[in-house]
Amino acid sequence: MKPASDEGQEPTQAPAEVGMHNQLALDQPWKRFWPPVKGGETWKRLLREHPEVLACRFDVNRPYDRPWRRWADPTFVHGASHAVGHVPSSSWRSGDGQPLVPRRDAEQERQALDNQIRRLKLPCVVPKSFHHLAPLEMYEREKPYKCHLPKDCFPGFKMNNLVSENYEVTISEVTGFEHMFTLNTSGFEFAKCPIAVPEWSDEAVQERYLPGIVEWLKKRLGCEDVFCYAYNFRHYDPQQRPAGQQYDFKPPFLRAHCDASASTCQARLRLYYPDNYTELMRGRVRFINIWRPISPAPVEDCPLAMCDFRTVDREDLVPMDIVYPHFVDEAYEVRYNPAHRWFYKRGMTQEDVIVFKLFDSEAREATVCPHSAFVDPSAPLDAPRRASIEVKAIVLG
Question: What is the pTM of this model?
Fold first, then answer.
């Protein structure tokens, strides 16, 4: 099954198409400057300096065209650390789409997981820095947001209102016990996925890697169809990425988050499959992320930590707008909760992957997985910088 074609939307209309929810009481500051009024000063400035912004259209047949990669600030990893007071959990809002269904046996599940950690005697690390969204009163009035727009065209406006706070978090290392964590129970799992890509580039990903991921997921998950709708390369420093590899990159994301909200996944499904959305939602729909290292050396310096779904409460997830030229996406920032349990696998190689959930219409299983890159304090100081690729896919059936 292939996604339907689409001629695109006008940029003045598109922000209402994706990731909207019922948080009408919260201010969305980005709406003060986007979309621009046709003929206004901002519109004229964009027309002169960044006409490609106004020309952006949604095209399901070209999902990997992302001109905003040239505008994004590569140094933005997390907001400024902030010392703030506690905000009661009852006042935090999560989007619609039912990201988490309250579980009657949640506390028993957490106790069982803690008992398992103690029994296995998993080694652990405590990073010097592990960021979550800061519990600011501002977020009682404003919805968190960030914009993938050329900031030089919006003088006086902030491209994001994200502020993070550092917390002490223990992360358990799972080598040898990877099988204890499954996609359906924990929201993530570790696997081997040997797809040979001699040199990483956008062309190699689209022509070789993504078709391999589609076939691998079909076999592993037993699903009917897979559509890869996005991918990102990540690396600390373009001067240190593996020799011969050519790609646009983002730095590792050092803050707890979820890539997409439940409501935006459903809205995105409607964008890609407008003609049979209702039919597809009667079956099972999953949004999956597949993360793997692509650096030659095993990953030591900056691995990816996964939060077990069984330890996540609905109130921990804070919807955030991500503003693109032609649509508005929605993700979850993650509020700190001492009940969370975090895990990682040290020394992942190019054949290793982490598969984790962004959304699952089957609410009786894990539906989402908070995650974050972190600097491993146990890594050698001269550990090679990791490079990685993540692929986001819609899994049908």
Answer: 0.85
